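To make this tangible, this section ends with a sequence with its structure tokens:
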Amino acid sequence: MRRFFTPRLGILALGHFTIDSYSSFFSPLLPLLVAKLHLSLTLVGTLVALASIASSFAQPLFGWLSDRVHRPWFVAFGPLCAAVFLSGVGQAPSYGWLVALLMLGGLGVAAFHPQAASLSAEVSPRRGMAMAFFVTGGTLGFSIGPLFAVGVVHAFGLARTWVAALPGLVVSGLLMAWLSRVRPRARHVGARPRWSDLKPFLHPLALLYLATVCRSAVSYGFMTFLPLHLHALGYSVTAGGAIVTIYLMSGALGGFLGGWLADRWGGRAVVLRSFLGATPLYAAFLFLPGWVGLACLALGSFVLQTSLPVNVVMGQELSPRHASTISSLLMGAAWGLGALLIGPVGALADARGLHVALLSLASLMLMGVTCALALPDVRGRVAAVEVGQPAPERPTTAS
């Protein structure tokens, strides 16, 4: 079996771990920010939606730029920007300032992901496992972010969350030092890739995109409202942060397993089974009490996130020349659209309660099942593509 890990993959995963830890930094602090700034649940949902415009919808622009530049400096400067702005949410004196900090930090998140995802698929002979390792680094960071946030607030107070910027500054410095010694390698030969070149792949890309939107809306929505739901049930802010971390950590482990399963089952099978398995588990959380319901939620996150790295690799292999652009669509714009749905969910929570809102959110996984059923079978491509060897331009079906 070919070894998938390389030092370059390790440092890319470290950067992903760091930047995504800031992406979830503000979530467990929402009960404190709601009390400080007098926010309604509608404003909370809108806050997430507005933040996603920068962190997610800006990714296609950075993906387009990344496919046209030779130096991966976006990978180094992204964590710096995210650390400086996202660690400052505790100092926000108003709702407008809070939105501004989240959007500015989100630009750093947007700059990092397309280029780093493209590089991570090239630095290892096993694309599926390499992407799973890279994605797992990010989801682990995303899961640690809430615990990191409540730890900083517990030690220094809400007014000094800027202390949390230090790890991001250190990792950004390490990435800059590493990239300055790495000779840039041309990834594509010939004409620069164009958006119009993706027309032959619009149907499978659209299905992958919609499936990712459904998964992202469920994952991000539960992450956003879970601290408030738990706080209403009597859990402390610290306990809520720890539970959110467990929820996200479980998803991170599921993402790594998904890369391994894709090498054996094929991407379509993993995506379909992730939705089929996760739907009843999320529903069980909403109807079962105490630790039983929480265990179902953690297991549901594990199952749902198995498809996370698989979607990206399937999309990249449709057109390797557009690897950064496709990564930005499936890791950025799809997440962004999923996050935009959190605004209406917040309004529904104000009108009908969080339980009804979360149940409606979980029902989106049924749409994910429909998209997965319509996906073409691209089994074998995840494991077969070698570094430096372009994949066929159209998906092939293997028996």
